Each structure stands twice: as C-alpha cells, then as structure tokens.
Amino acid sequence: MADVPEPESDEEEPETDGGVRAYTVRLELVDEPGELLRALEPISANGGNLLSIHHERGNITPRGHIPVEVDLESPPERFDGIVDALRDAGINVIQAGAEHYGEELSVVLVGDLVETDLSETLSRVENEADAVVKDLSLAAPEGTNATASARLRLAIDSGRAEQVFEAIRAIGTDKELTVVEPLLGGEA
Amino acid sequence: MRLAIVGAGDVGRSVADLAGEYGHDVVALADSSGAAVDADGIDVEGALERKAGGEPVGTADPATLFETDYDVLVEATPTTLGDAEPGFTHVERALETDHHVVLANKGPVAERYEELRALEADSAGSIRFEATVGGAIPVLSTIEDCTPQAVTAARGVLNGTANFILTRMAAEGLDYEHVLAEAQDLGVAEADPTFDVDGTDAALKFVILANVLADGGFSLEDATVEGIQSIPGSALELAAEDGRTIRLIGEASRDGVRVGPRLVPENGALAVTGTRNIVQLETKHAGSLHNSGRGAGGPETATAVLSDVGRLPEL
C-alpha cells in the first residue's frame, strides 16, 4: 500500500479502510436477459464495490450492442484482476481506466438559474471547481423566468470537498445564486 | 444562593418563578422601569402579577438592585449587538463587586468575550452562560465535561423558528412566506423574525461556542452568516428526492464560525423537526455526541440558568 498517502491529521482522515480508488469501466453487452447481472458478478466477486451503473438502453453501438458504464471502487492492486475476470467471462470491456473521482456529493443552487445561463454555470462548476456534474435536476415551479432550484450531483476527488465548495460558493456569489452545500464531516 | 435578576422578560420571570424549587432566594427582580428588592426575599408572585398587569415589577429604582445583598446576578435583559449594552455594564458591576454572574443574554458573551473573562479574572465571582446556547439543552456543560480541548467542533441547529419554517416547507411543499405567516400566527415566529431567519440568532450562539472552544477571539462580525429567506419550496423538494433536507446549520470551530442553509440527510440526527434544537459535538477521541431538546422558551431557558447557579462555588 505504498501509494496510499499519509493522512495529514486525524481530523481530515475519513473513516474508511483506505487505499480504495474509483474507476470507470465501459462495457458492451449483448441485448439479452440476464446479461447485465452476468457482467456485474465478476466485479463484486473480485473485490470491487459498485458505485453506479449507467445502462444506456436506447443507445445501441455500431455492433448492435448496448453500452454500459459502470463506476466502481476497489483497491488499486485488485483492479486489473477485475478487468481480467470480466474478459474471462466473455464480457466486452471497451475502456477501463482510473477515475480520479472518489466522492459523490450533491449541492442545490437557487436563483434565476435560466436567466443567469445555467449551462455556463455548469461549465464553470466543472472548470473552476474541478468537479464533474454527473446529474442535474431542475425545479422551476413558477416558470423558467422566476426563481428556480437545481440539484447537482457532483463527482469530486476524495478529500477535495472543501476546495470544490469554496469555488462553487465563489461562482454563486458572482452569479447571485444561493448555494446550499452539503454538511460535511461528523456522524450525521 | 441569593439571586438578583435583571430583566423581567420570559426568562427572567421564569427564573424568579422556579428559583424556590431549586433552593434559591430571589432578593431582587428588576426591569427597565422598576424593581422589587427585599434582602429577605421578594414576593415573587406579587411581582409577576404586577408585570402581567402591565405595571413595573416593583416601585424601587432599578439601580437599587445592585445595592442589595446578593450572591448571583442573573443577567436576562434582551440580547443586544455591538457593545452589548446595558447587559455588559450589569455584568461588569456585579463582577467588580465580587459577585457571581449567570447570563441568559447572549450579547456580552458573543460580542465582548475577552473583556468578560478579564473582568472575571480580577473578581472573586465567576461567570456562567449555559442558557445563552440552546435553551434547556446542556451544551456548554457538556463541553466543560469533555474539556474544551477534546472538542474539535460544534455543529447543529440552534434556531427553532428557522427550523420550524424549513420543516413545514418540506412537509407541506409551501413557500417561505406562507409558512412564516403560519409560524407568526402560532407564536413560533415573532412579529419581526429578522434575527431568526437571517441567521443572526444562531450565529451568536455559534460565536459563543467558538469562544468557548478557542478561549475567545470571536464576535458576530467574524461569522459568515446566511439566512433561509431565499430558500424556495422547490429547493426542499429537490433535496428530498435525494434523501436529504435543508436545515439552517451552524458550525463553530477554532478556525471560525459559519451559519447557513445546508443539505443534511433527511433521517440524520441533525434533521430535527419543528422548533427542536440539536448540537453535535465533534470530539477528538470519541466521535460525535448529540444533545437535543428545547432551545428556547421561558421555563426551558430558566432551567439552564438555575443549573448554572447550582454549579457556582460559595463566595
């Protein structure tokens, strides 16, 4: 476990077993019942922990297969074993790589989201806060010209939450948006 | 102990009312217009009846309160910001004459903490202020028991009005203005709820917590404060879809004080409902501790004052 950084202090070290990284694996599945389950089995059997599965049913690959994106975490030394096990099981692995993003957190933005150019806000979150916007839910009960709320699901590097939210706060101040951050730390 | 109570609002009156039950005598009760003073113990019932009838609590000059023989000054005048007067001068007068002081008034502890501690150091009396943070909930005494050095941070909900509004907004899908009007009808929110909904009241309490943890150094202007006025019902709906809700959360550590609306797990400890308050203490060696209960109200806050009186040494 030489690549695990030493914790800087007790306070900042989350209570995990340590040494786990997040990975994204892109698979191509044959459109047959049970195929997805068959593809996931080697992951858990080899020490991987499933984070999310994006099953793009409507999106067929040129070969007529269904692309599936799987986010998982595992100890780095076990990841190759997971990919090998998938291939051994006859699953077509398109892409397997390390993702830096180890944490998923939600944030709610409130304000004139449409007026202030929501897509620009999202790209600023990605660029300035160095987070990936995985998912967006918008609620604008009074129409898009009035106050609206948006929930962003963000993927961020483990241990970088403070910096990410500091950057999002600055974007909020700049665009006159209220930023409702998650409460981090403590046993909620 | 012989108590001299300055301030005859909900808290001051409740302290006078409950003091006997806790084994203490009330020798003076004063508000801004008059005082009841009697070295053998005032007629509390009579004084409270006069107050209820719109009269001063007594006919004596309020200043005579300090001239009577008492052990503990109970400072329960309304919280003021900035110079924290007249509360600060009341405390100063009591300490300079070697009396104990128990505060329910947040102003002096939040705004002039170091000055209070300096006055205390030169006095035979000591100060306590459990009632300034979280009403009936034993927050400061819990920190004292853990020893402040072993507590790294305090987080939580310390304003019942804001928490009530957010709870109702989430439950009924209503907007802020609707729920605020309802809260005012129920008497949960005051006619002018500004300090509750803009985060000031909660911030004062977390400033006091930061002062206790760091042994001073903070006042309201050091806190980053955001209120709940701009939170629409739709934000609470989106939070709920994700298993979360929004609460006005304060955080105090040795590095600073922050109060603002935050996402917390819907079924988590900090998502208390209605007017309930909660404080989470983060400890060095024992994880999180949670204290929850009624954070406001006359009798509730008076119990914190009287517990403090019980913790004071004999002079």
Which key terms come to mind for this protein?
heterodimer, A: 188 residues, alpha+beta, Alpha-Beta Plaits, 4-stranded antiparallel sheet, 4 helices, globular, B: 315 residues, alpha/beta, Rossmann fold, Dihydrodipicolinate Reductase, domain 2, 2 domains, 6-stranded mixed sheet, 12 strands
Q: Enter the CATH topology name of the largest domain in chain A.
A: Alpha-Beta Plaits
Shape descriptor of chain B: globular
The CATH C-level name of the largest domain in chain B is Alpha Beta
Mean pLDDT of chain A: 81
- Roughly how much helix do the residues of chain B carry, as a percent range? 25-40%
Report the major sheet of chain A.
Answer: 4 strands, antiparallel
Largest interface: A-B, 26 and 33 residues
Helix content of chain A: 25-40%
Topology, number of strands of chain A: 8
The CATH class designation of the largest domain in chain A is: Alpha Beta
Q: In angstroms, what separates the terminal alpha carbons of chain A?
A: 30 Å
- Please tell me what the overall shape of chain A is: globular
Largest beta sheet of chain B, briefly?
6 strands, mixed
> Do you know the CATH architecture of the largest domain in chain B?
2-Layer Sandwich
CATH-wise, what's the superfamily of the largest domain in chain B? Dihydrodipicolinate Reductase, domain 2
Uncertain runs of chain A with pLDDT below 50, 5 residues or more? Answer: 1-17
Query: What count of domains describes the coordinates of chain A?
Result: 2
